[in-house]
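Intended use. Records like the one below are meant for learning the mapping from a protein sequence to its folded structure. Do not use them to infer anything beyond what is encoded.
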Amino acid sequence: MDKPRLDGDTIRIFLEDESIATLQQLKEALGTTGTMTVFRRLKVLGYQSSYSHRGMYYTLRDIPDFDEQGLWGWHAVWFSRYGNLVETAWEFVAQADRGFTANELETVLHVECKQALLKLYRDGRVDRTKIGGAQVYLANDKGQQRHQKLRRQEHVELAELGLPQTEVLSHELQAAIILFFSLLDERQRRLYAGLESQKFGHGGDRKVADLLGLDAHTVAKGRRELFGGEVERERVRRKGGGRKAAEKKRPT
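Structure written out for the chain above:
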């Protein structure tokens, strides 16, 4: 006669097959209506609840294959190695390069985050400030917070200039932008800076100067040249260059 399986074995086999389950599904697998019966078995095995779907899904701790951000999704249900949504939001804000707005964090975590961020702010676990017209949640650590504010301001200025940026490669992209700018000659740099300054309006010369490492007077000069009609077009080819004109043959 086969030895009957323990309730813990039943849950493990069920979750290894299904990966995740609701409390009701686990009750049905055990053949019980007792909530505490299920949780006693889960506690012995070691379990995690989802941070999405109001924590209604469960899995065993050794099942999730967390990505580099500490997240694991299974059929649009999300789990975090940091625990519930509040703890996950805190971890992401504390470690962020430039903080997070609620919308940005929602994109990363795939769930609505506003209430979790508000709770963290009211509990004094994160700070927030308005930068570029948006509420940005920042780390409480003052050193990290200063870094996040500086990086956020750079992000806003790049966006206003219409320059490309991404969450992951922002450092690399900025380096590429600076490299490209360095390849221009002195006149081209001045005119390009003047063009970007015009987009800002008041204060644009200083913003572009700070971003591109120029003197504000140089930016202003480039703007005046470009929009004042003072730019002289240069020949693409030197005089006499290009293909020689074909000699027309006279009919004999």
